[in-house]
Amino acid sequence: MAVVRVKRPPADRNIFFQVAGYVAEIGKGMRLTMGIFLRQLFKREASNTLEWPEQPADYGERFKGKHFLTLRDDGEIRCTACFLCATACPADCIHIEAAEHPDGSIEKYPSRFEIDILRCVFCGMCEEACPVDAIRLGPEYTMAGAAGEKWVYTKDYLSQRSVLEGGVTSVKDENTKHPDLDREDAAQTSHLKHGVH
Amino acid sequence: MSIAITINEEEFTAEQGQTVMELAQQHDIYIPHFCWHPGLSIAGVCRFCMVEVEGRPKLEIACNLPVTAGMQVRTDSEPVQEAHKWALEFHLINHPLDCPICDQAGECGLQDYYMQVGKYQAQMTQAKVLKPKKLDVGVDLVLDTERCILCSRCVRFEDEVTKSGGLGIFDRGDRAIIGTYQNKRIEHNYTTNLVDICPVGAFTSKDFRFKKRVWFTQEAQTVCPGCATGCAIDLAFNADLKRYYRIKPRFSEVNAHWMCNFGRGMYMHLNVEQRLLSAYSAAEDAHKPMLKTDTAHIVQALAEQLQQAQQVALLVTPQYTVEDYRALLAFFVGKLGIRNVHQWRSRQEDTEKFDGVLWRGDQNPNSRGLLEVLAEFGIDKQQGNEFDTLAAGNYDLVIALAPQVLATFADIETDLQKLQELPWVSLWASAKQVLDYRYQQVLALTCFAEQRGTYRNYAGVERQLHAATSPVSAEIMSITALVEKLAACCKAQEDEHGSS
C-alpha cells in the first residue's frame, strides 16, 4: 500500500484571503456573460439562439427522423414487402402485409405498411436492412401531437405526406429482369448488375 | 452384408447397395445437395453433393456413389469446398436472386449455401437469361422458371409418386425450363408437394404465398386430422399472434415424405375468426340467438340436467383423441352408466375409398380409436352413422360432440338443424358455425393443434398429436378438462343432496 503525502493548507489564513479567490472568479464569469449579452443586445455579434418553431433548425442530411417510403419512376411504391426491415427492427414497430400487385409487372408489394411511431427507437436499422432503398429516415424531427392522434403511420402517409411534395423517387437501379418489360431495356441496365448477383 | 467404410476418418458400417449419401444422412453427416431427395430416384444432375474418395482422381457425387469395402470418404476437404463454391456459382448464373420477393427465402437451399460457401463476387459477365415468371401451372402452384435450377425433383415426383407425368424439362442449355405440356395443368390432390420438394423458389404455393415470412413462424410436429391415414405434419404457426399459416408433411412410416392438398387445408379452421371462443346458452326467447355465458355456469346447468334427465344419450364424432374418449366414457358410461353412445359421421362419406397414394374416404382421423375405446367400455359397435337412431331415440338430454373439421362433413348443416329440434342438447364444438343454430347450451372445445393426444389411423397405428400453442381463447378447453369439471359439479350436487 502506497502512502501519498499531502501538504496541509495553512490553518491560520485570514478568511478574507480564502473568499477573495471565489469573488474574483465570479467577476470573470460575469464579465464574459455580460460581454456577450451586451454585444448581442447592440447587434455587434450574431446570436446562436433560434426562435423555434417560427425559425426552423436545420439538421444534417444524415439525421434519422421521421420515416418515409420512396417511389419508383412510375410513382408506384418501391417497397417489395420483403419484410427485412420488420425483421431487423428491434422495437418490432413495422407491420407489413404483402400482396400480389394488381398490375402484373410487379410481383409483390405491401398492401399495408405501417409504422407504430410510438414504439420506434429511430435506430435506422430498417433503412440499413432495406435491399431496394425503399425506406429512409428523413430530416423531419417534429413529431409531437395531441393525445388521440394517429400514431401509426400508414403507407400513404409514409410515401405521400405533404412534406414529401408528391413523394421521393429513389434512383437506385431497378430490377429490370422481367420478361414483360422491354428486353432491350433490360440489356441496357443489366451492365449495372455485373459483378453483383 | 455389411461393409465398413470411413467418412471424415470416422468408421461406419453400411449395407450393400447403400449410397454414400444415404449413409451420411443416416448418421447426420450433412452433404449439401439439391437434386437428391430421399423419396425420389437418383438423378445426379445438380453436381452439388461432391465428396472426395481416397484413391480416386476426381471428386464423385455422393448421391450416386454406392459404398464399397474400405472406402475412405471426405466431405469437408479443400477440393470439396472448392467444388461447392463453383457448383453454386454455376447454379447462380441465371438465377435472379430475387430473395426479397421470393417466398422460399428463409428455407431455400440455394440461399443457405450462398451464405455458407458463396463466392460473393460473381465472375460471370454475360447478362442473365430471362425466362417466364409467375406462371399459373396448376392447383395451388405458381411457377417461376427463372428461379429454377433444373434439379428435376418436380419432374421425378410427377413421374414416380403421383404417376401423372405432368411436368417436363423443355429446351436446352441455358434456355432449358421446367414446364407443363401444352394446354395442360397439374390438377391432382398432391400438387403442393412440388412446392415442398423444390429446393429453390421456383414453385410457390398460392395459398401460402406472401402470407408470412417463414422465419416468423414456428413449427409443431403433429398429425393431420383430415382423414383416416393420419399423415405426420409440421404445422406452421406464430405463437405471438396465435395464428396458423400452413401444413407441410413430415417424414413418417405412414405418409413417407408426402401429404395431400386436402390435408393442407386443415389449418384454416384453427384460426380465431373460425373458432367458437366461449360457451353459450339459450336465450329465454327461443327465437333469439344464444347468449355468451360463463363456462362454469353452463357446466353447472348441465350437471343439474343430468340429475333430472331420464334418458341421456351421447353423440360422438370420430375426430377427437383416444385420451378424450376415455375421459368422456369413463364418466358417462363408467360412472353414470349411460350406454346410449352413438357415432356421428358424415352421411355422404365413402369409407372404402382410397386414392392409391394417401387420401382416404374415411375423413375422420380417429374412427378406429373411437370404436376401440367404446369396446373397452363394453359397447361393441360397427363403424357407421347413427345420427338418425339418436334423433328417433326420444332422449331428454343429448350431449353431442360436433366435428372439428366441418369441411369433411358434407351434410353438417342438415344434422345441426335436426339436432336443434331435439328437446335438450348440450353441443360441444370448436367451430363458430354452430352459433347459427339454437341449442340449450354450447361449450367451446380446443382443436387438434392445441392439445396432445393419440389418433388411431385406418390400420390401427398410433399417431401422436403435439400441441402447437395455447388455445386461442382462455374460455375453451379440452374434452378431458370439461368432463373433469362436470364430474366435480355432479359430485358437489350429490354431496349437497346427501347432506340435506
- What is the multimeric organization of the chains shown? heterodimer
Helix content of chain A: 25-40%
Q: What gross morphology of chain A would you assign? A: elongated
Strand tally of chain B is 22
Give the termini distance of chain B in whole angstroms. Answer: 79 Å
Largest pleated sheet of chain A: 3 strands, mixed
Helix content of chain B: 10-25%
String of helices and strands of chain A: HEHEEHEEHEH
The portion of residues forming beta strands of chain B comes to 15-25%
First-residue to last-residue Cα separation of chain A: 65 Å
Backbone CA Rg of chain A: 29 Å
Plain-language structure description:
The complex is a heterodimer of chains A (197) and B (500). Chain A has five helices and six strands. Chain A is of the alpha+beta class and 197 residues long. Chain A has a domain at 67-190: Alpha-Beta Plaits (2-Layer Sandwich), CATH 3.30.70. A three-stranded mixed β-sheet of chain A has the order 4-1-6. Chain A has a three-stranded antiparallel β-sheet with strand order 2-3-5. Chain A is elongated. The termini of chain A are far apart. Residues 176-197 of chain A have low confidence and may be disordered. Chain B is an alpha+beta fold and 500 residues long. Chain B folds into three domains: 2-91, Ubiquitin-like (UB roll) (Roll); 125-270, 2-Layer Sandwich (Alpha-Beta Plaits), CATH 3.30.70; 272-499, 3-Layer(aba) Sandwich (Rossmann fold), CATH 3.40.50. Chain B has helices at 20-26, 78-91, 109-117, 153-160, 192-197, 261-264, 295-308, 322-335, 367-376, 387-391, 412-419, 479-499; strands at residues 2-7, 10-15, 50-53, 60-61, 72-74, 135-138, 141-143, 167-170, 177-180, 203-205, 218-223, 232-238, 243-249, 279-281, 291-293, 312-316, 341-343, 397-401, 425-429, 441-444, 453-456, 462-465. In chain B, the strands form six sheets. A seven-stranded mixed β-sheet of chain B has the order 15-14-20-19-18-16-17. Chain B has a five-stranded mixed β-sheet with strand order 2-1-5-3-4, with helices on both faces. The longest helix of chain B has 21 residues, at 479-499. Chain B is elongated. The model of chain B has no long low-confidence stretch (mean pLDDT 92). The interface between A and B is medium-sized, with 28 and 27 residues.
